[in-house]
Amino acid sequence: MPKHFVLDTNVLLHNADSISSFADNTVVLPMSVIEELDRFKSHSDELGRNARRVIRQLDRLREKGRLAEGVPLETGGMVKIYPEKGQVTDPGLDLAVADNRILAVAYTLLQQGHKVIFVSKDINARLKADALGLEVMDFEKQKVNIDELYSGQRELTLAGRLIDQLYQDGSLTLEGLGLHPNEFLFLVDEADQKHSALARAATPDSVARLRFQEERIWNIRPRSKEQRMAFELLLDPEVKLVTMVGQAGTGKTLLALAAGLEGVLGSNSYDRLLVSRPIIPLGKDLGYMPGDKDEKLSHWMQPVFDNLVYLMRDGHQDQQEPESLRLKVDRLLRDHTVEMEALTYIRGRSISRQFVIVDEAQNLTPHEIKTIVSRAGEGTKMVLTGDPYQIDNPYLDSSSNGLTYAVERLKMLPLHGHITLKRSERSDLAAAAADYL
């Protein structure tokens, strides 16, 4: 029996192409969904853009037939708009609420004998649908299994002589590994756990010693093997996109900024360090803020500013006044050597010869990540950092955000490298909070 997929509004706002994602089945859009799209279409954010795209798609389909009766899709399926007034069976919900009217459409189709599946990214809506006896699902396209997310590294126990061979020859062949490009291997001697080595994939079945052996990058040194792996990717100009995932305090932003400063001020590989992050607050929003763009942005970029101040220390912390460190950072910003930009202003740009860091990327949709990465011009390197378990965007979760989607989709490309940072290095207190709270 052909299936009827009743879509909630949030599915269309999450992915404007979701209408054509259900093969040869019927996609049903209740009238309340069209009304909600109309409210979102004037927004200037990603939700507004998706609402407008969906509305334009439906208008093109309208020219091919009557949407109330159903219009064929190229996938072999059909899309139809369901007029609710006088046509829905009351499932016992308050129909003054738009979400309940959408559920009523799904419930009515079920009562008519159709095989109905209600699709929503709203957990509460899925719970209510399940209580009504409806089959429910989240929108699975562009989702990854967070429990099986590619970590960028493996651990392998083997004979000690092979580790010695790696140190001696600089490379080692290990048949049958099937390594991804830029994947790391932590080799451990089966007879002596302290005899170990870090290696990086050269081919699917061979590894090589790490190329960058610097002990200190812009006044910081790696404190774990994962941070050492991160520096290997961040310093390699051949790796154009680096993704770093880890909980709070693992050093994602600090490592990226250190590598960026080294590339801009040390090796002169890039003209500018560009740092950006989504403007999504933790907790209740502060609302309107006075001042120009830079003054408004400074509040959201304070975590980045704090890390820059830390990196500007020269190792003699007791002899440096906080004011002098801030002056150094202010000079970098004033000279546009370091630039902080809201993601709102990145759309439409072509960014060449810049080291770009997008912090808190877990709060971006897959489409937003695609938009940002596609801004990269010649000589540009991009770094995406974030914690998939710390999401403030109500339409995303650990499996559907753009950061984890990019990790899985790009892991086969030589120009991409990924590492998962596991241990908090900020402080003992931060590590305890991450592990126990």
From TrEMBL:
A molecular function GO annotation: ATP binding
Pfam families for the chain: PhoH (PF02562), PIN_4 (PF13638)
UniProt KW keywords: ATP-binding, Nucleotide-binding
Protein name: PhoH family protein
SUPFAM superfamilies reported in the protein's UniProt record: P-loop containing nucleoside triphosphate hydrolases (SSF52540), PIN domain-like (SSF88723)
Membrane spanning residue stretches: none
Family affiliation: Belongs to the PhoH family. In the N-terminal section; belongs to the PINc/VapC protein family.
Domain PIN residue range list: 3-127
GO cellular component: cytosol
